[in-house]
Design brief:
The protein has 191 residues and is α+β, with helices and mostly antiparallel strands. It contains six helices and eight strands. It has a domain of 133 residues: Aminopeptidase, CATH 3.40.630. The longest helix has 16 residues.
């Protein structure tokens, strides 16, 4: 997914959102490598060079946006637009129809509504600018702050998988999937 279909940067009341650049990666690493952030992330990067290699292999940099407050990178957003599962005869109609979103934020900026503010704009971008029809977000079921963000966005918990996710410190834990449809989002905006 390329971000070139969108005019950047995007601003909210307090934040600037834009695609990550190479010069942003040290700041993103500084956030993601902190134990309190990494607790609920897929990995806990401890070596900048190894992290860069993993980012390059996975293509994650192409799906990363940074959140800036007053010119400082305070976290990042994840956006992965993908094709919906379809039957062969309607495959073209499912192209780029859904997306997965996610986020991480430096601890000193948590609890101030920054993720909700940034994710609200990301949802708008997905539905209005990219034409996505369905958004999902996944988390460990015990990651209360992320679950609250999903609920503030109007997302619905569609699934809770019992002991499905292996956490590096907590063992086998529940995982959840939340989703939001464009029609639901539009109805909320009109209300």
């Amino acid at each position: 997914m390329s971000f070139d279909r969108i005019s950047w940067p995007r601003t909210t009341d307090r934040l600037t959102l834009r695609p990550a650049e190479t010069t942003d990666l040290p700041a993103v690493f500084a956030v993601r490598s902190r134990p309190e952030v990494a607790e609920w992330m897929p990995d806990h990067p401890t070596s900048y060079d190894d992290w860069l290699l993993r980012l390059g292999r996975s293509g994650a940099v192409e799906r990363m946006l940074v959140m800036e407050a007053e010119g400082t990178v305070i976290g990042d957003l994840y956006l992965h637009v993908q094709d919906a599962w379809t039957q062969a005869e309607v495959k073209e109609s499912g192209a780029q129809a859904q997306a997965e979103i996610g986020w991480s934020l430096a601890p000193e900026h948590q609890g101030k509504g920054y993720v909700t503010e940034a994710a609200t704009e990301l949802v708008r971008i997905c539905f209005e600018d990219l034409g996505v029809r369905r958004l999902t977000a996944q988390a460990f079921a015990d990651n209360g702050p992320s679950l609250r963000v999903m609920e503030r966005l109007g997302m619905t918990c569609e699934a809770r998988f019992r002991s499905e996710s292996l956490h590096r410190d907590h063992g086998w834990v529940d995982g959840v999937v939340y989703a939001l449809l464009r029609d639901e989002w539009q109805a909320r905006r009109r209300a």
